[in-house]
Amino acid sequence: MSWVYYTICTFLTINVIFNMLGSIALIRFPDVYTRLHGATKCTTFGTIFAVLAVMTHGLYRLHVTGDPKYLQMALHSFVALIALLLTNPVGAHAIAKAAHLSGVKPAKAVVDAYEEKLGGEEE
Amino acid sequence: MIAPEFFYAALVIAIGGLISVFRAIAGPTVPDRVVGVDTLNTIVVALMVLLGAAYDRTIYIDIAIVYALLSFIGTLIIARYLQGGLR
């Protein structure tokens, strides 16, 4: 019980800290690009540790009780983690490109290299 | 409830979900609202996995898989609409 419980609580603490940091980034950062940067990276990293905690819990309960429901819990949470890891960065890149193309500029930026690249290619 | 630590972690994460709902309502521009909704999607996936472990129901984790894939499609469609077509 003891070291498995401490491992689960460590994973859950890392998960809670990083998800709350991602949410605080949403209200503290000045424009859409920095908000996207903070929120996407922190919540993805936090959710990795949530799934690790659930997998540790499921494999430990499988070891104790022998019920195959807990093996299903661990494997399906791993599949959910894979789906999240594949889709979350792609969605963040799509939002950033759409924000730049729809006219929202970075707040305190000095150099906008993507704008220079677009202007050099199209016009 | 056989594992209450998962429930308390989910309770704290739900406060972060409320903050992202605030950003989705009060965002100055439209991409700010999309960022709020995207963060809310990730938090809801983490919340469903944690609640599935807390209440000992495996079906919540299956719902988390489907929700992750469908919210990704929704985010992509909103992004394509914002940038004005496929370019």
Topology:
The complex is a heterodimer of chains A (123) and B (87).
Chain A: H1 2-28, H2 32-65, H3 68-101, H4 113-122
Chain B: H1 4-26, H2 30-54, H3 59-82
Helix pairs in contact in B: 1-2, 2-3
Keywords:
heterodimer, A: 123 residues, 85% helix, 0% strand, B: 87 residues, mainly alpha, 83% helix
Please provide a written account of the structure.
The complex is a heterodimer of chains A (123) and B (87). By secondary structure, chain A is mostly helical. Chain A has four helices and no strands. Chain A has helices at residues 2-28, 32-65, 68-101, 113-122. The longest helix of chain A is centred in the middle third of the chain and has 34 residues, at 32-65. The radius of gyration of chain A is 20 Å and the shape is elongated. Chain B has 87 residues and is an all-alpha fold. Chain B has one domain (4-82). Chain B has helices spanning 4-26, 30-54, 59-82. In chain B, α1 runs antiparallel to α2 (30-54) and α2 packs antiparallel against α3 (59-82). The termini of chain B are far apart. Chains A and B meet through α1, α2 and α3 of A and α1, α2 and α3 of B.
**Which regions of chain B are unreliable across 5 or more consecutive residues at pLDDT < 50?**
none
Q: How helix-rich are the residues of chain A, as a percent range?
A: over 70%
Total number of beta strands of chain A = 0
Chain pair sharing the greatest interface: A-B, 49 and 48 residues
Poorly predicted residue ranges of chain A: none
Structural class of the helix and strand makeup of chain A? mainly alpha
| N-to-C order of helices and strands of chain A | HHHH
Give the strand tally of chain B: 0
* 3D shape of chain A: elongated
Mean pLDDT of chain B: 90
